[in-house]
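Quick one - first record:
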Amino acid sequence: MSYITETLSNLVHQTAFFNLTWGNYLMIAVACVFLFLAIKKGFEPLLLVPIAFGMLLVNIYPDIMASPEETSNGVGGLLHYFYLLDEWSILPSLIFMGVGAMTDFGPLIANPKSFLMGAAAQLGIYVAYFLAIFMGFNDKAAAAISIIGGADGPTSIFLAGKLGQSALMGPIAVAAYSYMSLVPIIQPPIMKLCTTEKERKIKMDQLRPVSKLEKILFPIVITIVVCLILPTVAPLVGMLMLGNLFRESGVVKQLTETASNAMMYIVVILLGTSVGASTSAEAFLNLDTIKIVVLGLVAFAFGTFGGVMLGKLMCKLSGGKINPLIGSAGVSAVPMAARVSQKVGAEADPTNFLLMHAMGPNVAGVIGTAVAAGTFMAIFGVM
């Protein structure tokens, strides 16, 4: 009888109920909220579902993220190995290849002025950088946090890893991906506040046709120019442009399909679950996380503001030919931010079609955020 009692007691004490803290239960609740937003509300489910599930797993079974040194048999937890691919910048770079293979750079080539709006939308990064230093973060941590303003999850993970901010990578990545998912909620009020109804109704001329040669040369030229100036950003910009060259060359359709479909989705699963699994209660529930979430929101808001305000300036200089709403797409959340520009413009005038025009600043924002990350790496002498 005592044997049975002891065995049952051991089994009961092996359940998670006896090992979880109140923080773990709170994070489980947060994970369930994220799953609700992703499944019920449709907020970027491709991102939020794996992130939320990784968050759920690590707070029920923390050893799923244990390193080999922390285990009795010398074998780390499953998601620990996924997470190493984040720290080594492998998954963020592969995500960029997939984005390049899926994205048409034609609108940016047809309207090179879009580069300016993409650059202006990086305002939030630099505002958040100085605010982070003011709030007590060191310079490298401030740089890693500030890149959230680009609304670019892979770049946020890439820079945090390169600057040795692994301890902050989880909160930074979750904040970046959360704000990417909430683009349709956060951006419209700022866009409407910064523009008049007359400006939102502006219809832009149809973009000029872009030749196949231009589309093939663009990724090659951008790679050469950007990587010569900022070699450290080659893993991101190089993979982005390689994916786009697959798409535009027309001679490697199998590679294009693999990069934009099978590989992309596999990488999203690995990256999303590992990012979510970095949010254990012990690592996530602290004052620094709250600061990061606040700074991320500030960065994102200022990024949207910067893009729209330059759009307003270009609108005036062009004699009212540019709708300033497209500047908000410069935050680089592809293609969600461009869709938001289209939606807000259509609310003012249902016949207005801004999507293709907004894709120019949107793609420029991806490049701009990567360049901002490379600039920080150059400043700190990180290779």
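second record:
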Amino acid sequence: MQMLNEIRMDLEKLKDPQRAKDSEWFFKTGPGQYGEGDIFLGITVPKQREVAKKYSDLSLSDIQKLLLSKIHEHRFVALAILVNKFKKADNFQREEIFDFYIKNAKNINNWDLVDSSAPYIVGEYLAGRGKAILYKLAGSGNLWERRIAIVSSSGFIKRGEYEDTFAISEILLSDSCDLIHKAVGWMLREVGKRNSGELEKFLKKHQKNMPRTMLRYAIERFDVNKKRFYMAK
């Protein structure tokens, strides 16, 4: 508990009211927006990572307390500590961290929290393992669990494995949320960086049903003529 209080105090000392105000606008914290109710201290990501590194020995029970906080930076630091722990952990500890992450998925509730943690815990842990949990998350009614499902697949993409990225993308084609459209398009673009042929096979099959934002993200690295070809469909 002492270490937890020290983290809170360190973050409080770093707060910047103007940056906090800007962050509340940027992360859409207004009524009805995806980040509704999120509270910011206004701390830069590098400074948050410094705090996380300082408290790398924080227990999972205290990490959970931070994840339950309404303050965004508390949750970001908690996840940064968790990622650091995972990198250094043995197989048994990695399983424990993975299980902890999945159980707390609903508290990983903004896009930066997902993107800075899911690939490095979920994606890494599931490499070479069954991916059923990702398909369950992809069908969730919770926006952040769906984003975890697709963004985690970046860990497989780096290994030249695209099947799950494509399959999860198909599940999310009809998703109504722009944040999911962007995430799917981003992962498809990552596939394209490594294998443009596989990406184009997917696009030719699904481009007519893809939300425009998703399609634009997916083809971002194509040349002008190829972009026009796909956007014209």
